[in-house]
Amino acid sequence: MSSFFDLKARKAAAANGTLSTSGEKQKEENPRVQPWVEKYRPKTLSDVTAQDHTTAVLQRTLQASNLPHMLFYGPPGTGKTSTILALAKELYGPEMLRSRVLELNASDERGISIVREKVKDFARMQLTNPPGGGYRARYPCPPFKIIILDEADSMTQDAQSALRRTMETYSKITRFCLICNYVTRIIDPLASRCSKFRFKSLDTGNARRRLEDIAALEDVVLAEGAVDALIRCSEGDLRKAITYLQSAARLVGATAAAAGDADEMEVDGEGEGITVKIVEDIAGVIPDATMQKLVKAIHPPKSGNAYEAVAAAVKEMVADGWSATKTMTQLYHIVVYDEMIPDIKKNRIVTVFSEMDKRLVDGANEHLSMLDLSLRISEILAGR
């Protein structure tokens, strides 16, 4: 302890390698506490799942060491950010990555000041020379930097307009990669300067293989149907599915705990691993029995009106804490896939769902919105 305050002793200990810094300690502990989404993020383009066309085109540009400005768009959790980061790692390697790549989340920093300050300052920085010793033989290190703007569809129109001029001015030494969920929210002058790459939702087969691989690497026990439940609850978002998998593993103690962590883990005594019910609980899926109560109340009785039954069912769901968005999503699937409901009535019901979705997005009261939705569906089913 006394040597800690002695600068000479600290320097000597550091020289001998006996003094471990907090950064080194953090680095050693990272693999254990790191989220699986980051731990299993693709390291190379060949690791990217189910985006064959995009990765094939980027592989060719990687060989030519020449990139255009790029626009990645598609649903969340399909590998957009992972793909550009993997490409950057293959282009620059670990030593040049920090000085050549700037990643900004545009949803947090989306004003015009960010474009004028951070983006512009990085874009006009002079390029640093790559290290010697055969580094260029392993990594191309092309003569340009990459600026990644994640969630660019959240940027204001003024910021996007300012970015257009920046892209033109510094195109010789800087390439931009815009990442968004909705390509229609990117202004046309900006989108026209980029090569567009569409990322589609992962199909069941690719998502299943990826989840099973991660489960095997983490020694996670998966009960029958658990993978299907993960895919269904994540709705094509692989990032969400991996997060659910990690949460479920921590909940039941299905992960093989590292030494010293066993006492902290809540180990399931039965050892059955991750079940469908556990996945649904973590994902916030409303139980079938609860949904069936609402569906039964919505179907109009032979005599009288359905108001009291519907109001009681909705009140119970609100009291149990189920969100209106989740309730509406599950009710939508139940109604749309019900073969006993005529198509003409389904068309009217879908219109009601769209109106309610808009109301909830605008911040309407969830209880009243769900009550209105249920009663209007009940009226349509009754033929009124």
UniProtKB/TrEMBL annotation:
Domain AAA+ ATPase residues, every copy: 66-203
Keywords: ATP-binding, DNA replication, Hydrolase, Nucleotide-binding, Nucleus
GO terms, biological process: DNA repair; DNA strand elongation involved in DNA replication
InterPro entries per the UniProt record, alphabetical: AAA+_ATPase (IPR003593), ATPase_AAA_core (IPR003959), DNA_pol3_clamp-load_cplx_C (IPR008921), DNA_Rep/Repair_Clamp_Loader (IPR050238), P-loop_NTPase (IPR027417), Rep_factorC_C (IPR013748), RFC_lid (IPR047854)
Cell compartment(s), UniProt: Nucleus
Signal peptide: none
Family: Belongs to the activator 1 small subunits family.
Protein name, as recorded: Replication factor C subunit 2
Coiled coil, from the record: none
SMART domains, per the entry: AAA
Annotated region (Disordered), positions in chain: 1-32
GO cellular component: DNA replication factor C complex; Elg1 RFC-like complex; nucleus
Gene3D superfamilies reported for this sequence: 1.10.8.60, 1.20.272.10, P-loop containing nucleotide triphosphate hydrolases
Molecular-function GO term, any one: ATP hydrolysis activity
